[in-house]
Amino acid sequence: MKIAVLPGDGIGPEIVAQASKVLQALSKDGLKIEMEQAPIGGAGYDASGDPLPAATLKLAQDADAVLLGAVGGWQYDTLPRPMRPEQGLLRIRKELNLFANLRPALLYPELADASTLKPEVVSGLDIMIVRELTGDIYFGQPRGIHTLANGEREGYNTMRYSESEIRRIGHVAFGIASKRNRKVCSVDKANVLETTELWRQVMIEIAKDYPDVELSHMYVDNAAMQLVRAPKQFDVIVTGNIFGDILSDEASMLTGSIGMLPSASLDSNNKGMYEPSHGSAPDIAGKNIANPLATILSAAMMLRYTFNDETTAQRIENAVKKVLANGLRTADIFVAGTQKVSCSEMGDAVVAAL
Ligand code: NAD
Fold first, then answer.
1. DSSP H helical ranges for the chain
2. What distance in angstroms lies between residue 272's CA and the mean position of ligand 1's atoms?
């Protein structure tokens, strides 16, 4: 298993070090893992003037999977747009053709009090959001800002999805649902947007290939509401790039801390990039207080989706559960009566629990 390790910026190096520690521990147990590091984002810019250095892209292309920390920092905010750290991330996703973004929102019973919603609304929550990542209004052409004949400026973007783009993300969602609770909720705005009218038609066609999976449809505005009203009604949600961007952040907060949430972005051969859902948290970088669990759980997703090793994935997830059950908490999830630990102590505890 060749893994490209891209720590990035801010807390990236601290949290990736913990996930690497977990993978190394598994390596000692006989799992054949090779890891090699390279800079990306601001670190890439600092090293070679490019947020996605050519050598980093090559390493990622040659690897079976990529483990990423996070990118971004205030010191890069004034760079020309193509040089900014976020561009490195957008480009690597595009270059690796990572069209399927998987973001689980899972609430650990021990952390029910960390959610802003009532425990009875969120306890037992286990949703998988499958977001299309390389199409939609974020990439559609034409786009831009131009000046109209009357001298007024106008901004425009184009929402577009081809049938094949919808079909491939649909199959990912149905495939995942068939291994979970067999329910897919497709989120669109088919009452207003033709692009998503096609989205709904294609989802209905795909559903015929999965007779065991129940398909439902929901308009995005209602989905936003239902996620905070009764989130446990969902199993797998599949949606386009912009709706998924917003809904997955909303869902992440149901679980209390963004520091707990992993993510996977897959291509059509299940090669993937695995990263926590949060950013580089410059406000706490270098203090050894970040929560590394989202990154460690991303490594578990890597074993599940790229290396097809469900047993080891669960072993990591169970180690995380054990550490939480033992009362260990980083600052972001700390409550009275638990034991506050640093980022590296949390990593050590997960390794010990393995
Ligand atoms: P952020 O996710 O970095 O931080 C938001 C808040 O959550 C901060 O208070 C931070 O301290 C906290 N937080 C985040 N991760 C945490 C963790 N593991 N443990 C404890 N607390 C944690 O979002 P932001 O502040 O909007 O953005 C900061 C930078 O990150 C920006 O440069 C932004 O562009 C970048 N960013 C990168 C990614 C990515 O790499 N995928 C995603 C989002 C934002």
1. 12-28, 42-48, 54-62, 85-95, 119-122, 163-178, 194-207, 220-229, 241-254, 293-305, 310-325, 343-353
2. 21
